[in-house]
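Note to self: keep these together.
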Amino acid sequence: MSSAITRLSLSSRKAVGAAKSVGASLSTLPSPSLPEEEQHDIRSRREIHASTPPPPKRNIKLEAIKSVGITQLHNHTQDIIARASRPLFEDDPVDAHGHKRQSIAQIQEATRMESALIDALAHYSSRQSTFSVGGQCIEVLGVEVSADLKQARAFWCLPRSLDLHTIPDSKIQQLIIRMQQILDERGGKIQGLVHARLRAYHPPKIIFVAAEHVRRRR
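Structure:
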């Protein structure tokens, strides 16, 4: 009986050993691998996926601000101008000469208009001689804006490079009258250039006025 048990134990050990050897031999077999081109494609796709940045998030607040548009901005600008058009001194609305004081809005608008008008005349006269006398463009001495900011009086004079002392008074008057007619008829070209430069809002209408000191030759 004991010999039978011993033989059974030996046979079991042999079976276990054989199974282990078979498993070891199977583990040593070469594992199947993908072709080199497919492996390269897989690595490339992984690198591209890793380097691709995530899509930007939509900024809802920024989109809302953009949707407001230029109309609302213009309305705010007009509201600010209206608030600033009040007299600086409520108890003394006139100056020493008896003229009504200009508001801050009038002064600021006059400054903008004068700068834009000088640039527009220089730009136009570089190509055309419509507003030139003796090869020189007329000059702007100043601008006054009405209280409602709808009109701007532009005071102009003959080119200061001209020697007026050598020109007869009658000739000077003819030059002034002729240039004033040209400005009345063709001044819209200058108005258009000023509008283009100040296109963020509707600037005042320009009215050209010959300066008094030019007529009197002071």
